[in-house]
TrEMBL record:
This is O-phospho-L-seryl-tRNA:Cys-tRNA synthase. The modification N6-(pyridoxal phosphate)lysine is found at K277. InterPro entries: PyrdxlP-dep_Trfase, PyrdxlP-dep_Trfase_major, PyrdxlP-dep_Trfase_small, Sep_Cys-tRNA_synth_arc, SepSecS/SepCysS. Coiled coil: none annotated. It catalyses: O-phospho-L-seryl-tRNA(Cys) + hydrogen sulfide + H(+) = L-cysteinyl-tRNA(Cys) + phosphate. Belongs to the SepCysS family. It comes from Methanoregula formicica (strain DSM 22288 / NBRC 105244 / SMSP).
Length: 454
């Protein structure tokens, strides 16, 4: 690599580190030690740029970086957007993206047997093995989003007219995966606490058998759902599925990458996770993992032979359509993986911060939490009809006054204009930022005449 290109990359990487430090600091401000690190990084970037610009005919890095439409939302603000929180890239992933952003870059060193999960440079094969271990399963494949994991499983197990059990809070992509395979969904109803239980799942299975004469072919349930982020009885459901000898798909879109997940201990046949939702990875990315038993079926290799040419593609896996994530998406997953693995061990702290924030929000008279409480997750659905919405009723900006107030305090990501029921996520915020967030909500409440219990 020429010195110039190498320097350009160095500068871009250093800039990413600066952005990373920036993300940590705003809007609550730097601690002195952080500030020193920040200034040092800036000096490094400047030195590299000066070096580059001193060279003849060197493209200015500032110009290259400047031509990218930088999205500053998460650099400059606390972002409480409900579904982006754990998908935000690490600095390492951002650097990987710069390096591997071009097309098939993962495939530079693809050698026989010509399949993504066999590539050893960069260490994609090893990453697959690590991923399987990470979720307590035997085999893993990367997929373009959790939805493609569902699709691979339904493509394997569901025939026309077959029934699949999902929850009454299932994500739409689960419905589509079943429909795509020609099946039909049957939803397990929620109990009075908005929880899917093992017992209700067993009842639904019996109901399907009584009505159709056939047992469902798959039970697919979310550990935490996307509407309330309530925790469902995943172990009991896994047990029930096995009692009926029905394979169980554990949807970990909101768990894999943020909390420890052990698929086998849960009794899952398949574990699905979402890279862009919970693994600090570029979209679309995700993981499908399975037990040894399912390998020959779900990851069956092609037997197709060209009728004219007699061509065969032997090792390519049908449900994966051969290979899946072939560039920056995969490398971003890999680059974030060490951080992701480590952060799952700190899940309890995340939950504590979530509870701290919701506890403070509930001190604003008229506010309610619609998710189970105390929280077991950082994503929460709240109801502020009795608090912030009472102000919106007469405010000239209606519900947007709350967004205005929040954004002026460096907080973004709430559903703009919504003051009744809405969702937020505190994942990844430091103690300091969560305190700042809670103070900001209380301050806005008091400013608009709402009572706040001290
Ligand atoms: C519970 C749940 N499952 C699955 C998905 C789909 O995930 P992906 O976007 O990775 O396909 C989502 C997306 O929002 C979700 O909330």
């Amino acid at each position: 690599m020429s010195i110039r290109i190498q320097k350009t990359f160095e500068a871009l990487f250093a800039l990413e580190e600066v952005r990373g430090l920036f993300r940590e600091s705003l809007p609550t401000g730097f601690d002195p030690a952080e500030e020193a690190a920040f200034r040092q990084k800036i000096a490094e970037v400047k030195a590299i740029l000066a070096d580059l610009e001193a060279g003849t005919g060197t493209p200015k890095v500032t110009k290259i970086a400047g031509s990218i439409d930088l999205r500053t939302r998460e650099e400059e603000a606390i972002n409480i957007q409900p579904i982006q929180a754990a998908g935000r890239l690490t600095t390492e992933a951002r650097k990987a993206l710069i390096s591997y952003g071009d097309g098939y870059s993962t495939c530079d060193a693809c050698r026989k047997p010509f399949r993504l999960d066999k590539i050893s440079k960069p260490g994609i094969a090893e990453f697959h093995a690590d991923l399987a271990k990470f979720v307590g399963m035997d085999h893993a494949r990367v997929v373009p989003g959790a939805r493609r994991g569902f699709q691979a499983v339904t493509g394997t197990l569901v025939n026309k007219g077959d029934t699949v059990i999902v929850s009454a809070l299932a994500h739409y992509t689960e419905f589509l995966a079943v429909e795509n395979a020609g099946g039909v969904v049957r939803e397990v109803p929620l109990n009075d606490k908005n929880i899917v239980t093992g017992e209700a799942t067993a009842q639904k299975i019996e109901e399907v058998k009584a009505e159709t004469g056939k047992f469902p072919v798959l039970v697919m349930i979310d550990h935490f759902d996307y509407q309330f982020a309530n925790e469902h009885e995943i172990k009991e459901i896994g047990k029930v599925a096995h009692q009926y000898d029905i394979p169980f798909l554990y949807n970990g879109a909101y768990t894999v990458g943020v909390m420890p997940v052990n698929g086998k201990a849960i009794g899952a046949d398949f574990v699905v996770g979402s890279g862009h939702k919970s693994m600090a990875s570029v979209a679309p990315s995700g993981v499908l993992a399975m037990t040894e038993e399912w390998l020959p079926k779900a990851l069956r290799t092609t037997s197709m032979v060209g009728d004219l040419t007699k061509r065969k593609f032997g090792i390519k896996e049908v449900e994966m359509l051969g290979c899946t994530l072939m560039g920056g998406t995969l490398l971003s997953m890999m680059a974030s993986f060490p951080t992701v693995k480590a952060r799952t061990l700190k899940w309890e702290e995340e939950v504590q911060r979530s509870n701290y924030f919701i506890g403070r929000l509930l001190k604003i008279a008229g506010s309610r939490v619609l998710s189970e409480y105390p929280r077991k997750h950082t994503l929460t659905k709240v109801d502020t009809t009795g608090s912030f919405d009472t102000v919106a009723q007469t405010h000239k900006r209606r519900g947007f006054y709350l967004s205005d107030e929040l954004s002026s305090r460096g907080i973004v990501g709430e559903f703009a204009g919504a003051t009744r029921t809405w969702k937020l996520n505190t994942y990844g915020l430091s103690d300091k930022k969560v305190r700042y967030l809670a103070d900001a909500f209380c301050e806005v409440a008091e400013k608009h005449g709402l009572a706040v219990e001290k």
